Inverse folding.
């Protein structure tokens, strides 16, 4: 199982690196961080505070490409992160590395406001152990996914330096590939500065001869995704089971780089089947308990060869015997486009995380196509 987890998370990092991160502008940020009690199942008292330090390498924004122009020249970065949760004997420390992308929102009085998102890999020095660390039921593996969302303020200082203030939500989890895994959700504020190399002024549309900025694709098309998720049984050391799912629907393209999707989803979860079947429920009923159908809606955003997919599904009352959970799920996916220059048939492969609000369901691999 360890090799599968490494493969999935490494694939996520490789696919994001296709956006073209180049170490051109180093920076450093630091600040306090606190853990969120996102579920009453957490066994320990939360630390009063910890701290986070990030080192950031920011790429230039002068490359000529259609997606950069469409999204108003977002900033692509590579970030190394260190987190001290505030209780090292219990929770340890986290060392992470992830690529991120920052979108400009607006500027006011010389201050730029932006939204930033990133996902990657983290190593946690302490994990759950039945005998030596039984209270830590939030992290049960050393290798974990790290996902961060933040709002960032930037202020230019002189010709080369930029000061930043960042409010963030940062999540650490192995997506229940090893149990128990409630995950660690943190929030905090970082302040820092980075050295910004001079960059060329954004090119005008008239200067983009031959670049893929034309809208030469159908507005409406199909949406198809096939996937396989992996999760561990709900108790420590339990067996690993798969979840199989299919999404089929339609998509509406606002541009070659932004598409809305919606449709129907079918999922069968072997872990749920085994749970009920081992509880002396007959096979046909257990299979229905393990089957879910849903309507889904989401968006695909294309950044070069990388496509980010954000999707939410709302469960349908069919089959009637289906296991009762929260009424919706969220899926976050990072995909690599196999034919990036194709507009009317665009296949891709990637990885995703599925969760029910605060609880991770599984990590999965997907193959899909925009038709």
């Amino acid at each position: 199982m360890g090799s599968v987890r490494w493969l999935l998370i490494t694939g996520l990092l490789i696919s994001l690196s296709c956006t073209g991160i180049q170490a051109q502008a180093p920076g450093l940020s630091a600040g306090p961080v606190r853990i969120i009690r996102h579920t009453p199942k957490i066994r320990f008292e939360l630390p009063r505070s910890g701290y986070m330090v990030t080192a950031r390498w920011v790429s230039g924004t002068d490359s000529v490409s259609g997606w950069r122009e469409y999204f108003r020249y977002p900033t692509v970065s590579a970030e190394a992160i260190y987190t001290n949760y505030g209780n090292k004997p219990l929770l340890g420390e986290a060392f992470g590395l992830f690529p991120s992308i920052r979108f400009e929102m607006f500027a006011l009085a010389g201050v730029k406001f932006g939204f930033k998102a990133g996902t990657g890999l983290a190593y946690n020095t302490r994990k759950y152990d039945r005998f030596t660390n039984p209270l830590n039921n939030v992290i049960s593996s050393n290798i974990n996914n790290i996902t961060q969302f933040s709002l960032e303020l930037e202020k230019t200082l002189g010709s080369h330096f930029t000061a930043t203030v960042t409010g963030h939500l940062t999540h650490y989890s192995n997506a229940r590939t090893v149990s128990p895994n409630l995950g660690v959700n943190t929030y905090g504020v970082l302040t820092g500065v980075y050295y910004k190399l001079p960059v060329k002024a954004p090119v005008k549309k008239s200067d983009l001869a031959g670049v893929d900025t034309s809208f030469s694709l159908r507005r409406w098309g199909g949406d198809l995704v096939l996937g396989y998720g992996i999760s561990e049984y709900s108790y420590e050391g339990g067996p690993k089971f798969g979840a199989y799912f299919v999404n089929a629907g339609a998509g509406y393209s606002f541009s070659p780089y932004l598409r809305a999707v919606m449709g129907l989803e079918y999922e069968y979860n072997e872990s749920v089947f085994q749970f009920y079947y081992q509880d002396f429920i007959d096979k046909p009923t257990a299979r229905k308990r393990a089957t879910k159908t849903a309507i889904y809606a989401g968006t695909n955003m294309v950044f070069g060869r990388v496509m980010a997919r954000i999707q939410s599904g709302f469960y349908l009352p069919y089959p009637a015997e289906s296991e009762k959970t929260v009424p919706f799920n969220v899926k976050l996916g990072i995909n690599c486009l196999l034919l990036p220059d194709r507009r009317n048939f665009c296949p891709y492969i990637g990885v995703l995380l599925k969760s029910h609000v605060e609880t991770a369901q599984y990590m999965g691999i997907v193959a899909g196509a925009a038709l």
